[in-house]
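Quick one:
INPUT:
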């Protein structure tokens, strides 16, 4: 184990550091899709997942995003009201709906992607390609460790 401390120092406590970093990243990145496009954080995550996976149910989006079902439901309703996604009955489950982006949803997503990628590029500009690779490797390793628990 990499850590055998006996005292808790928040600035060295991984859950605290990662949570604060994730929140700061989320708030700063959200200026692109919240202020410029009127999407909530959850709506952006739903939009991005549907763009990547084409068709998903709300339950699948909950699994991919680790967000509460009620938040996903509100985001889906908001996106649907704006004409950004379609909802159709899922085959084999009359209670579930398949969700997919409309043309307007795809266009909105495609207009946001270059902006968020540019934002990410600027953030990661302080890392070498090797440091970025190592960071992504370590994050994946921690993710897998949590899945084994």
């Amino acid at each position: 184990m990499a850590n055998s401390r006996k005292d808790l120092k928040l600035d060295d406590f991984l859950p605290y550091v990662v949570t604060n970093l994730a929140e700061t990243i989320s708030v700063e990145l959200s200026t692109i899709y919240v202020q410029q496009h009127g999407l909530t954080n959850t709506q952006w995550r739903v939009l991005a997942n549907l763009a990547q996976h084409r068709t998903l149910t709300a339950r699948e989006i909950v699994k991919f995003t680790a967000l509460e079902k009620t938040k996903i439901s509100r985001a889906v309703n908001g996106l649907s009201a704006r004409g950004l996604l379609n909802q159709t009955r899922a085959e084999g489950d009359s209670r579930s709906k398949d969700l997919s982006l409309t043309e307007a949803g795809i266009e909105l997503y495609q207009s946001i992607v270059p902006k968020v990628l540019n934002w990410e590029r600027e953030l990661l500009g302080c890392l070498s390609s090797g440091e970025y690779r190592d960071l992504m490797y370590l994050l994946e390793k921690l993710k897998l460790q949590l899945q084994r628990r």
